[in-house]
């Protein structure tokens, strides 16, 4: 490209440095479209080994040019962008591309058409990275900057675009876990941290269960023996549900003081609902207020996911626990029996 033509094109592209997206950086300022485009190009470069058969140089080119249309229209968040907005942006972009000198005018037009068709592996890679980088940016920003609809959106955004490759699905799941952890952390209050359990914390949760069962037996509130305990609470069980297991950690000591698994389904309930189901809820004996803190975090976490209720069960033979849950607003909805356990199904509307 001749120097003057190059300078003209660069001056147009420079607008993306000042064209902000609605997301914020970790430092607290609006990110620019140019920064978003740079990072998905960087992602493509670093994924060469994951897609050795793909033309990753082409993917990088797609990443670098994909948002140039926003030089003319600005950035419109995906949840606000209409079909008319897309047509306007494409028209202005194609008019500008057509005015570029050869061979870039035809090369870029061909790239845009390939990206829009989403039939080639390169186009699918670019599109998946475009979607995922947006969620990564939200995970890095202060959650106070999130729009209300983004709590659910950030858990699902880009999922359809990643289904074409196992690696992309794995990456999207890792990003989803970051999102869940961020939402969980935002629910906690000092000096506690509320988050998903780490692998090494499963044994600590199991120890809390063992401690609590021993305390209940000593106080005549539980009839389970050692065989029941090892049957219903093996370590392998907690390792298996770790992605659903949340813990409340005392940041002063690093100790897990309360824990519970939050599932989206529970077959014991006769009627489905947009709810989370709390299982294996336990708190450290003597850690005053830890259980209540965990329960309040779980409620806020459920709300952040758009759920309308939190459901759990409590032992039918424990009057103190019955009074506690009713005081917390958990109303009885039915009963359940599992082995020696007789429980009451409870629900709190959020």
What would you note in describing this structure?
Strand 1 (20-24) and strand 2 (30-32) form a beta hairpin. The chain is elongated, with a radius of gyration of 26 Å. It is 51% helix and 17% strand. It is an alpha+beta fold and 350 residues long. It has a seven-stranded mixed β-sheet with strand order 3-4-5-6-7-9-8. A two-stranded antiparallel ribbon has the order 1-2. The protein contains 16 helices and nine strands. The longest helix is centred in the middle third of the chain and has 22 residues, at 166-187. The model has no long low-confidence stretch (mean pLDDT 90). Helix 3 runs antiparallel to helix 4, helix 9 runs antiparallel to helix 11 (166-187) and helix 11 crosses helix 15.
TL;DR?
By secondary structure, the chain is α+β, with helices and mostly antiparallel strands.
């Amino acid at each position: 490209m001749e120097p003057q033509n190059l300078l003209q094109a660069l001056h147009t592209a420079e607008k993306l440095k000042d064209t902000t997206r609605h997301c914020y950086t970790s430092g607290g300022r609006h990110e620019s479209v140019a920064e978003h485009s740079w990072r998905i190009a960087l992602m493509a470069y670093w994924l060469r080994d994951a897609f050795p058969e793909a033309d990753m140089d082409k993917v990088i080119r797609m990443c670098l040019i994909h948002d140039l249309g926003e030089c003319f229209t600005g950035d419109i968040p995906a949840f606000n962008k209409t079909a008319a907005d897309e047509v306007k942006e494409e028209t202005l972009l194609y008019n500008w591309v057509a005015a570029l000198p050869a061979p870039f005018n035809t090369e870029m037009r061909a790239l845009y058409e390939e990206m829009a068709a989403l039939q080639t592996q390169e186009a699918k890679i670019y599109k998946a990275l475009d979607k995922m980088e947006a969620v990564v940016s939200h995970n890095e920003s202060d959650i106070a900057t999130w729009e209300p609809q983004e709590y659910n959106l950030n858990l699902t955004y880009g999922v359809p675009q990643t289904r074409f490759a196992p690696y992309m699905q794995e990456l999207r799941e890792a990003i989803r876990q970051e999102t869940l952890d961020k939402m969980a952390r935002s629910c906690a209050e000092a000096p506690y941290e509320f988050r998903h359990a780490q692998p090494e914390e499963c044994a600590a949760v199991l120890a809390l269960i063992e401690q609590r069962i021993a305390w209940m037996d000593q106080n005549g509130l539980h009839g389970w023996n050692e065989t029941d305990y090892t049957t219903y609470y093996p370590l392998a069980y907690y390792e298996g549900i770790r992605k659903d297991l949340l813990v409340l950690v005392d940041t002063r000591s690093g100790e897990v003081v309360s824990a519970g698994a939050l599932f989206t389904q529970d077959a014991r309930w006769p009627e489905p609902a947009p709810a989370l189901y709390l299982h294996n809820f336990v708190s450290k004996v003597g850690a005053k207020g830890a259980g209540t803190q965990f329960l309040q975090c779980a409620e806020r976490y459920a709300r952040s996911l758009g759920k309308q209720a939190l459901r759990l069960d409590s032992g039918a033979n424990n009057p103190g626990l019955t009074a506690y849950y009713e005081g917390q607003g958990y109303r009885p909805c039915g009963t359940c029996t599992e082995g020696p356990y007789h429980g009451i199904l409870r629900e709190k509307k959020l």
